[in-house]
Automatic annotation (TrEMBL):
Originating organism: Halovenus rubra
Entry keyword Signal: yes
Lineage, broadest ranks: Archaea, Methanobacteriati, Methanobacteriota, Stenosarchaea group, Halobacteria
Protein name, per record: Extracellular solute-binding protein
Keywords: Signal
Gene3D superfamilies tied to this protein: Periplasmic binding protein-like II
Amino acid sequence: MTDNNDHSRRQFMKAATASTVASSALAGCTGILGGDESSGGEWRNEELATVTATSFDDLYQPDTVDSDPGTVNHLTWSGYDASNVQAPFRKKFSCDTSLDLFTSNPDAFARLDSGEWQDFHHATFDMAWLPNLAEAGLIRPLDYEQWKPYTFDKYTERFQKEEGYKYAFLNEDDYSFDVDGKMYGVPQRYGWASFAVNTNTVDSSDYSSYDAAWSEEYDVGIYDLPFWGVQIVMLREGIEPYKSHSEAEIEQIREATVDLFENATTVLSDIPSLNSALRNNEIDIGFISGSWINGSLRRGGDFQYQAHVPEEGSVIWVETTTMLKGDHPAVSDNYLAYMQHGITAKNLMWPTSGGTNVVPHQSAIDKLNRRQRDVLRVDDISEIIDRSVFYTGVPDLSRLISVWQDAKAQAQ
């Protein structure tokens, strides 16, 4: 992004904010959210205007929407499309939702940045992509105080501004995360990247460190996902992932990655292959893996498989929903509020299809039964976060991905 683009965007945001304030003054405080400008939805027709919210809990009520609710188009991850997540909203608001699923943050960003933002209203990215999305002028800010009853008031202590959670807020001078900055997204679902172990075959003293994946004592399968893989290699090597790296650090990462591939029994191309290799006892350790094994392995009762977080820690990712620029249907803000509702959040944790991961919503967590808590490892999460780092973006990721790919080729 160029400085000129950044400057023009700031000018636009100032103008949009002034327009919203002026429109709100003219509309007054009467009326509830609907499709016409007099009812508080004027932000819909301003390309990057701040998204406001009516008083709690108006946005849950279908009678606040006009006769043409429209269709909400959502670019997001597996699980959000589950019938128990989407069907209640569609029925209650007599509308449709269309979900386009992706598996790569960089690819999804490239799609939006190339013009596909026009096809969507909501997009859910890992939180490290908020600065990129905002600086590119693709997403709208949200009014924190107005949205707080629908969002942050529902979260656990870990996800409160007062406790330092900053990964939904940006300083608009440089688009860095800033707890006092502008709100650009809402946390929706989260988990961690680490490695998976079969606790029946790997000694606990060994899987207390990532070194187990470099050990000849175990059969190791490498999931060929360099995006996460290089980050976990850096944690193992004691290298800070979220900075530009020196030549010495790059070489250290390269050597460790070559050793990892040379020790591996097999290289696997996708999550189903990795999980199948674990389940069939073809491998003892899956590197890398993470909390996403909950749905495919642990939810089926195979509790011996664990996305373990060793002493070096894991990487915490937080899927964060944003509202894109451009026109929005009448139910767009109702949909955002609905996705943040405790019942919806609970269903997202336990979807009829797709990934099984925890959410930051305390009321949703409180609704889990004992088995669900065990599958999701809810009671371990506080300790996991304490030992981990939040994913905030790797500046030289492209170079490190090349290091991973070269190491794989060298080891073959």
